[in-house]
């Protein structure tokens, strides 16, 4: 078996993991599965693409940081688009989810997220067509890094970015005031209010952080693969499988779940063939639900 | 005369509009007092103090905390105003460490003050100091109750409100909890609590009021209430030794 699947799996796993953090946080704090999360990824990517275009229009063509395929415009655009995607998530909550949440039936909110997903996806197809777009058409040469493994500079940069972001989110959750408040709301929303926590503020922060990470995951796919309106929706199953495998509410669990699913998918391509790739996440999801529904780092619901 | 910390007037409250559970209850709590709310099951005791704590909708009446009206203030802002509430059940964050339980409640304190206040809490509840890294859900019932009370005290409330602090505890812990409340009062905190365990509550309480069907039935000094045969038999579930003529005795400080 070609060991290259390790690199492929790590990269896919990072994309899945970043998406799964958002899903797991939304689920543990707002108590619903947000099926529009994948489409936030796609929106974030197109937002980044537009901002890069605007920068290029203003400053002309900017040379990439050799040996990477992208330069500072993409980095700046990503930072801005993370804010935009967080804002989009907030807007979606304000005009749709929060109103339905107030009625108390969570299944309605889940269905609404299906609707939001469809609307967001079709708007992208309407605006940008379904033809794939690219951040760069330059071809990168993968460098050998020993043990028969090859990796491109872009891939290294994005793996580092993922590691930094995941560490940052983990530190926020465990060390900061807002992180403690998020954990408090997820464990006992009623007591959180009594303890003086502004639950609405916690909810806003959850959307911001979930949207921002969705944007990064989307841009990763955009840089390494291609940009399509369906790019996020297609990731939905692996993302949910990762969040559930890791244990709902656990940030390290979501990342580990993402890596396990990414690596399994990459291995499956070599063992049973590429046409079975999509089945892997589904099989893992079923297995977790049968064997250990609370996931790796999950805890029993009260 | 001592300052009035809490004054509740003609409170009508309930979960559904048009279905009041509290039907015109009144209460005052003065600085430094322990006031106990008693009453038979279903009398609306719990709803009464939950309404005061902002957790049950209030239909009419007023709640004043230190001359400030707090009737319509949402629960999460009451902490800031100086009213801290300890629910009867699920009153800790089970997966968070003891220290994080305290920190999350002290969110509005600055960092220096927070550290100092946590130390004060460990001084008041020495058991918790050794357990501060342990998830609060893994503690014994009595220690959990300590975490719940310490959490509420973090922000130096003017008034500590507790919903049946002895519920579900073994007898050993029940007496521990009441000793703890007496100590907290000595430390200068005013306390309002609802209790099923009338005897223990009246032993530490200064005054008590008995709610029946959502209204004040009796009110008075804690010791007088305990000695009152009618109140004792009807509402506190205690058989009084005195004969039937005892019920003819006028009730001291009783209100209609």
Automatic annotation (TrEMBL), chain A:
Primary site of residence: membrane
Subcellular location: Cell membrane
The keyword Metal-binding belongs to this UniProt entry's keyword annotation: no
Keywords: Amino-acid transport, Cell inner membrane, Cell membrane, Membrane, Transmembrane, Transmembrane helix, Transport
Membrane topology of the entry: Multi-pass membrane protein
InterPro entries reported for this sequence: ABC_transp_permease, BCAA_transport_permease
GO biological process terms, semicolon-separated: D-alanine transmembrane transport; L-alanine transport; L-isoleucine import across plasma membrane
Pfam family, one: BPD_transp_2
Gene Ontology MF, one: L-valine transmembrane transporter activity
Top-level taxon of origin: Bacteria
Membrane spanning residue stretches: 6-28, 40-60, 72-92, 104-124, 156-173, 205-227, 239-264, 276-299
GO cellular component: plasma membrane
CDD domains: TM_PBP1_LivH_like (cd06582)
UniProt cross-references to PANTHER family, sorted A to Z: BRANCHED-CHAIN AMINO ACID TRANSPORT SYSTEM PERMEASE PROTEIN LIVH (PTHR11795), HIGH-AFFINITY BRANCHED-CHAIN AMINO ACID TRANSPORT SYSTEM PERMEASE PROTEIN LIVH (PTHR11795:SF371)
Family: Belongs to the binding-protein-dependent transport system permease family. LivHM subfamily.
Protein name: ABC transporter permease
Organism, as annotated: Xaviernesmea oryzae
From TrEMBL, chain B:
All residue ranges annotated as the ABC transporter domain in the record: 6-238
Presence of the UniProt keyword ATP-binding in the record: yes
Alphabetized UniProt keyword annotations: Amino-acid transport, ATP-binding, Nucleotide-binding, Transport
Keyword ATP-binding part of the UniProt annotation: yes
InterPro entries (UniProt xref): AAA+_ATPase (IPR003593), ABC_transporter-like_ATP-bd (IPR003439), ABC_transporter-like_CS (IPR017871), BCAA_Transport_ATP-bd_LivF (IPR052156), P-loop_NTPase (IPR027417)
Single GO term (MF): ATP binding
Pfam families from the UniProt entry: ABC_tran (PF00005)
GO biological process terms on file: L-amino acid transport
N-terminal signal peptide: none
PANTHER family noted in UniProt: BRANCHED-CHAIN AMINO ACID TRANSPORT ATP-BINDING PROTEIN LIVF-RELATED, HIGH-AFFINITY BRANCHED-CHAIN AMINO ACID TRANSPORT ATP-BINDING PROTEIN LIVF
Assigned protein family: Belongs to the ABC transporter superfamily.
Name of the protein in question: ABC transporter ATP-binding protein
Organism in which the protein naturally occurs: Xaviernesmea oryzae
Top-level taxonomy: Bacteria, Pseudomonadati, Pseudomonadota, Alphaproteobacteria, Hyphomicrobiales
């Amino acid at each position: 078996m070609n060991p290259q699947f390790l690199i492929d799996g790590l990269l896919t796993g990072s994309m899945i993991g970043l998406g799964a953090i958002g899903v797991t946080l939304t689920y543990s704090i707002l108590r619903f599965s947000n099926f529009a999360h994948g489409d936030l990824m796609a929106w974030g990517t197109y937002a980044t693409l537009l901002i890069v275009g605007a920068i290029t229009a203003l400053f002309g063509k900017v040379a990439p940081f050799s040996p990477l395929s992208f330069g500072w415009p993409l980095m700046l655009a990503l930072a801005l688009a993370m804010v935009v995607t967080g804002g989009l998530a907030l807007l979606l909550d304000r005009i749709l989810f929060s109103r339905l949440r107030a009625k108390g039936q969570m299944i309605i909110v889940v269905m609404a997220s299906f609707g939001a997903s469809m609307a967001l996806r079709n708007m992208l197809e309407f605006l940008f067509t379904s033809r794939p777009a690219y951040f760069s058409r330059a071809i990168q040469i993968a460098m050998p890094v020993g043990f028969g493994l090859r990796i491109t500079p872009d891939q290294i940069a994005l793996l580092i970015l993922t590691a930094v972001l995941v560490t940052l989110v983990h530190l926020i959750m465990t060390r900061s005031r807002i992180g403690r408040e998020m954990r408090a709301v997820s464990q006992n929303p009623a007591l959180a209010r009594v303890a003086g926590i502004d639950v609405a503020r916690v909810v806003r922060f959850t959307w911001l952080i979930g949207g921002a990470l969705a944007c990064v995951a989307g841009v990763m796919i955009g840089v390494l693969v291609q940009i399509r309106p369906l790019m996020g929706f297609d990731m939905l199953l692996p993302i949910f499988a990762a969040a559930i495998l890791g244990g709902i509410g656990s940030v390290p669990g979501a990342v580990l779940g993402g890596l396990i699913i990414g690596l399994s998918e990459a291995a499956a391509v070599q063992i049973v063939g590429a046409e079975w790739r999509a089945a892997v996440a589904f099989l893992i999801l079923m297995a977790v639900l049968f064997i250990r529904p609370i996931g790796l780092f999950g805890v029993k619901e009260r | 005369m001592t300052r009035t910390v809490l004054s509740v007037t003609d409170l009508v409250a309930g979960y559904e509009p048009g279905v009041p559970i509290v039907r015109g209850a009144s209460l005052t709590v003065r600085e430094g007092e322990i006031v106990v709310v008693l009453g038979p099951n279903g009398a609306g005791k719990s709803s009464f103090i939950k309404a005061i704590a902002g957790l049950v909708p209030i239909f009419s009446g007023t709640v004043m905390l230190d001359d400030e009206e707090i009737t319509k203030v949402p629960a999460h802002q009451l902490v800031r105003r100086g009213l801290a509430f300890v629910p009867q059940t699920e009153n800790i964050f089970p997966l968070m460490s003891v220290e994080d339980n305290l920190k999350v409640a002290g969110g509005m304190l600055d960092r220096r003050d927070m550290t100092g206040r946590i130390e004060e809490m460990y001084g008041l509840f020495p058991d918790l100091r050794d357990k501060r890294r342990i998830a609060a859900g893994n503690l014994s019932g009595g220690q959990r109750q300590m975490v719940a009370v310490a959490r509420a005290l973090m922000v130096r409330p003017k008034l500590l409100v507790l919903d049946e602090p002895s519920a579900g505890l073994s007898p050993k812990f029940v007496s521990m909890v009441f000793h703890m409340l007496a100590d907290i009062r000595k430390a200068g905190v005013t306390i309002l609590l609802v209790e099923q365990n009338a005897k223990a509550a009246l032993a530490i309480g200064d005054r008590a009021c008995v709610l029946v069907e959502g209204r004040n039935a009796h009110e008075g000094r804690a010791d007088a209430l305990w000695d009152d045969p009618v109140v004792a038999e009807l509402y506190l579930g205690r058989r009084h030794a005195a004969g039937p003529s005892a019920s003819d005795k006028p009730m001291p400080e009783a209100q209609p």
